[in-house]
Amino acid sequence: MKERCLGRTGLSVSEIGFGGWAVAGGSYGPVRDTDSLDALEAAWESGVNFFDTADVYGEGHGEELLGEFLKEKPRDRAVVATKGGWDFYGGGHHKNFSPDYLRSACEQSLKRLGTGTIDLYQLHNPSAGTILEGSALGALASLKKEGKIRFLGVSVHTESEALAALEDPRVDAIQVIFNVLDQRMAGKVFSRAREKNVGVIAREPLASGILSGNYAPSHEFPKDDHRRRWLAAKREADWKKVESLKEVLTHKKIKLAQAALEFTLAYPAVSTVIPGAKTRAQALENAESSLHPALDREDIRKLEELYAREEIFREEMNPR
Fold first, then answer.
1. CB proximity list for 270: less than 8 A, separation 6 or greater
2. DSSP symbols for 111-147
3. Cβ-count burial of 313 within 10 angstroms (0-12 exposed, 13-18 middle, 19+ buried)?
4. Are strands 12-14 and 18-19 parallel, antiparallel or unpaired?
5. Virtual CA dihedral for 290, 291, 295, 297, nearest 10 degrees?
6. Distance CA 231, CA 215 (A)
7. How many CB atoms lie within 10 A of CB 257?
8. CATH code for the structural domain at 3-230+256-295
9. Partners of 14 in the beta sheet?
10. Angstrom distance (rounded) from CA 303 to CA 307
11. DSSP-based three-state secondary structure for 17
12. What's the pLDDT band for 310 if we cut at 50, 70, 90?
């Protein structure tokens, strides 16, 4: 597994990381801990050393699962990232970026992960206003001084949020949505991140599974799968996008998912991509994008041109 530096942190992270939302349960359909631990083990055996989760994933279970997995592993070989800012302790989920809450949330995350320090602690999708106001990042900076976290990050949805985070000198890494279906961050955000030497974590590199090519518009997701809420128009449009991608890659003997991961890794600003995996087979397939890449620069150019040329790729179909 190839590794890259996470911005100015000095941390060497695997190109393919492990996104921990799906294995936490409750959001991507049924999952068994035995399968999740097997997926984590397969990733580790493939050279994955970057593991990203959040306290709200499975209401703490995602962190507990990762903590259980890593307790038998050499701690200095794993880079652990988690997030705080979604308060689920009082029933329901709501954003809470107050300094007192973030301190409390971080303490709970440390316990669940079974570690004395978190390598990268990230604000979990704050607004641009919250980022610019600064007190939430100030709380993380205090935790860093105390040795409870090593580096600060911000997970964002929009370009404006990413750019706001990049203007705060305390931010060491940003986590953004980036994939072959949504290439918006490849412009100003990636350029600014490189100027600032801030690490970039690309999440949803498989567009929540769309880029597996397995989910036709008629596919019925289980009740505990957030994708069940997708609008019919979005699903139809996404399927058309997938079909057009397959046409561009028809000359390549490569699975669409592997091609999608290789696309995200084609950008030097990207430090690591974090696809999810619920099974050993999925984790091994994800690793192939770094272990045995198949796309060349011309393939990447064609995928960029397709995105720029076809208006359907820029339609706002995601109901966030």
1. 4, 178, 190, 200, 201, 202, 264
2. HHHT-S-EEEEEEES--HHHHHH-HHHHHHHHHHHTT
3. buried
4. unpaired
5. 60
6. 14
7. 22
8. 3.20.20.100
9. 3
10. 6
11. coil
12. very high
Alpha helices in 173-231 (DSSP H): 188-196
Exposure of 145 in the CB half-sphere (CA atoms within 13 A): 8
Q: Between vectors from CA 264 to CA 261 and to CA 268, what angle results, nearest 5°?
A: 135
Q: Is the pLDDT of residue 249 over 90?
A: yes
pLDDT in tens, 24-58: 998 888 899 999 999 999 999 999 999 999 999 99
Query: Cα–Cα distance between 36 and 236 in angstroms, integer?
Result: 30
Residues 82, 74: contact at Cβ < 8 Å? Answer: no
In the prediction, which pLDDT does 315 show? 74
Question: pTM of whole model > 0.85?
Answer: yes
All structural domains of the chain with their residue ranges: 3-230+256-295
Buried b (16+ CB within 10 A) or exposed e, 196-223: bebbbbbbbbbbbbbbbbebeeeeeeee
Q: How far apart are CA 117 and CA 57, in angstroms?
A: 19
255 and 285 Cβ atoms separated by less than 8 Å? yes
Distance CA 47, CA 17 (A): 9
Q: What whole-number distance in Å separates Cα of residue 37 and Cα of residue 65?
A: 8
Q: How far is residue 168's CA from residue 164's CA, in Å, rounded to a whole number?
A: 7
| Angle separating helix axes 61-70 and 99-113, nearest 10 degrees | 40
**φ/ψ (deg, to 5) at 186:** -70, -10
Q: How buried is residue 183: exposed, middle or buried, by Cβ count under 10 Å (0-12/13-18/19+)?
A: buried
Scanning the chain, the segments in alpha helix (DSSP H) are 33-45, 61-70, 99-113, 128-133, 135-145, 159-166, 188-196, 232-248, 256-265, 280-291, 297-309
